[in-house]
Amino acid sequence: MKNYTLVILFLLGTIISNAQKSESPYEWDWVRDGIWTGAGLAGSAGGLLLIQNKEDLSDEDFFKIKNDLQNEIDDINFLDRWVAGKHDESANSISDIPFAISFAAPFILLLDDETNDHTGQVLGMYLQSLGTTATMFTITAGLVNRSRPYVYDDSGNTSDERRQKNNGQRSFYSGHVAATATATFFTAKVYSDFNPDSPAIPYVWAGAAVLPAAVGYFRMEAGQHFLTDVILGYGLGAATGYFIPELHKKENSNIDVYSSSGRAFNGDTYHGMALRYSF
């Protein structure tokens, strides 16, 4: 009798546990996603090597900026021209605060009852999202030379040595903004998918949109990036944070595509694909 009681209690515990565990809207394939995540991490490492090996601004180009500064600024497109010459160390430090906060945002999801049953899956997608963003950013920053706004600062606050260093040649595009947008849009997307009826969704998305915009503003004030660098970083980061979870969503089980063959009413035979929707 005692053994039967233990078996019944075990079965009841299993049933309760399964009942309490929420169903994830996502699916994870270890082969596909393992390759994708590994490629993202490897790509970002390769991009960092490209960044480290960038050349300094040539003496000839730096001479032109120093001695013909206004014409050099006038050659910058009108969207970015107003940022040229900005340099604010305080803004640079402030930009790091929302940037750092954003990386922790997805971990707040683990406090949500609907999400924390699938911690490994969520963290796997987050790592994949960050790896994808890091690869795109580092390779672009390593290959494209664009002077940062502070390179055009002739106020004396920025030394000539700093203006000519290779770090000043990777304005395009903003990695801070891209990474922040990836983290915040990922958080909002995953929360919305796990809690589609939550009244908090509009506020979550508002926060997701504001945080990378704040980072972008301070990065421009710091003279680290132009407006177009920020816009592109925002767009690419937000797209990655949104679409990587979207690509992991389970297929709609109500839709079925299958092969079909038979004979039509006029006697002709046919072969093809059929779509079935169940409701």
TrEMBL record:
SMART domains: acidPPc. It comes from the Bacteria. InterPro entries: PAP2/HPO (IPR000326), PAP2/HPO_sf (IPR036938). Gene3D superfamilies: Phosphatidic acid phosphatase type 2/haloperoxidase. Residues 123-245 form the Phosphatidic acid phosphatase type 2/haloperoxidase domain. The keyword Transcription regulation does not apply. The chain crosses the membrane at residues 171-188, 200-219, 226-244. Keywords: Membrane, Transmembrane, Transmembrane helix. The keyword Membrane applies. This is Phosphoesterase PA-phosphatase. It comes from Cochleicola gelatinilyticus.
